[in-house]
Design a protein that fits this description.
The chain is an alpha/beta fold and 338 residues long. The protein folds into three domains: 155 residues, ATPase, nucleotide binding domain (Nucleotidyltransferase, domain 5, 2-Layer Sandwich), CATH 3.30.420.40; 94 residues, ATPase, nucleotide binding domain (Nucleotidyltransferase, domain 5), CATH 3.30.420.40; 69 residues, Alpha-Beta Complex (Actin, Chain A, domain 4). It is 38% helix and 28% strand. It is built from eleven helices and 20 strands. The protein is flat. The two termini are 41 Å apart.
């Protein structure tokens, strides 16, 4: 039952894997997978979020369960707009006024990609749309005071992108965004299982493997898991047992891509800010940073203390929510510049 309310300020972490909604004064009110099920014959949206995710890989020919965001940006504009419209209605209810919405975007998106996000949100019912870079939002959500003239490094690993930034005085001094994150780890797991066991698995199974036994740093105690898939030789359903220690080999390549990018950003960081980071450490946020051992691997490779933020999955959404307090000052600044 949608509640009746006035227009609200809404923060949205528009993630490749998950959409998290934040309402000013209420906190996080929505957490749904970024999946939409569409009837190809009519174009009608049949399901959004968790219900649609359960359809992935299990739909008849005329129904397609799809993720309209890939690698941090909109890959299907029409479906993204429909998904946003559904989520905004679910968050805001029957409001008298359209909401102002702040949306997170990766740090290195193009102007065209920014416009696509703004247009999709506007057409979905937003009165005004503001954008905030993911590492900035993640830093705010992690409780870091970014207004001071000192360096803070944030590594935000989402579903589609990893955003790495050195932040000082409220802005990014050095940053990069690479399309290696949670989804890429899933891809490597699918390839590994296929090559090693001659077994075909879907992306949902790959994600379950990653969450349950996935690791990028050797574990003291090995963990095993049963995996079901289709034998590529016989074409029949088969069950195998995999171990956590073999996951280090399977996931090493994407993990080292992230480590190398952190190295690259550190090399381009001014000496004074690099010294601050050495003292304060590196903050990791986002659901992708929870892969077992990724913090240990990064700490071993850089020699800098690495900390996973509290409630890492929600950091970007929480930071976006805190940034909603500045919307009035942003509007006033825009009026003065007009």
């Amino acid at each position: 039952m949608f509640k009746f309310c006035w227009g609200q300020d809404i923060g949205i972490d528009l993630g490749t894997a998950t959409v998290i909604g934040y309402v000013k004064g209420r906190g996080i009110v929505l957490r749904e997978p970024s999946v939409v099920a569409v009837d190809n014959n009519t174009g009608e949206v049949l399901a959004v979020g968790g219900e649609a995710r359960r359809m992935l890989g299990r739909t008849p020919g005329n129904i397609v369960a799809t993720r309209p965001l890939r690698e941090g940006v909109i890959s299907d504009y029409t479906v993204t707009e429909k998904m946003l419209k559904y989520f905004i209605k679910k968050i805001g209810g029957k409001a008298l006024f359209s909401p102002r919405i702040m949306i997170c975007i990766p740090s290195r998106v193009t102007e065209v990609e920014k416009k696509a996000v703004i247009d999709a949100a506007t057409n979905a019912g937003a009165r005004k749309v503001y954008l905030i870079e993911e590492p900035i939002a993640a830093a705010i959500g992690a409780g870091i005071d970014i207004s001071k003239p000192c360096g803070n490094m944030v590594v935000d690993i989402g579903g589609g992108t990893t955003d790495i930034a050195v932040i000082s005085l409220g802005g990014s001094v050095v940053s990069t965004s690479l399309k290696v994150a949670g989804d890429k780890f899933d891809e490597y797991l699918v390839k590994y299982i296929k090559k090693t066991y001659n077994l075909a698995i879907g992306e949902r199974t790959a994600e379950e493997i990653k969450v349950n036994v996935g690791c990028v740093f050797p574990k003291i105690q090995d963990i095993e898991m049963e995996v079901r898939g289709r034998d590529l030789t016989t074409g029949l359903p088969t069950t195998i047992t995999i171990h956590s220690n073999e996951m280090v080999k399977a996931l090493n390549e994407p993990a080292m891509m992230i480590v190398d990018s952190v190295h690259s950003v550190l090399e381009r960081t001014p000496p004074e800010l690099a010294s601050d980071i050495s003292d304060k450490g590196i903050y990791m946020t986002g659901g992708g940073c929870l892969i077992d051992g990724l913090d240990k691997l990064l700490q071993e490779q850089t020699g800098i203390n690495v900390m996973i933020a509290q409630d890492a999955v929600s950091c970007v959404a929480l930071g976006t929510g805190k940034a909603l307090d500045n919307l009035d000052s942003l509007d006033e600044k825009a009026r003065r510049q007009a």
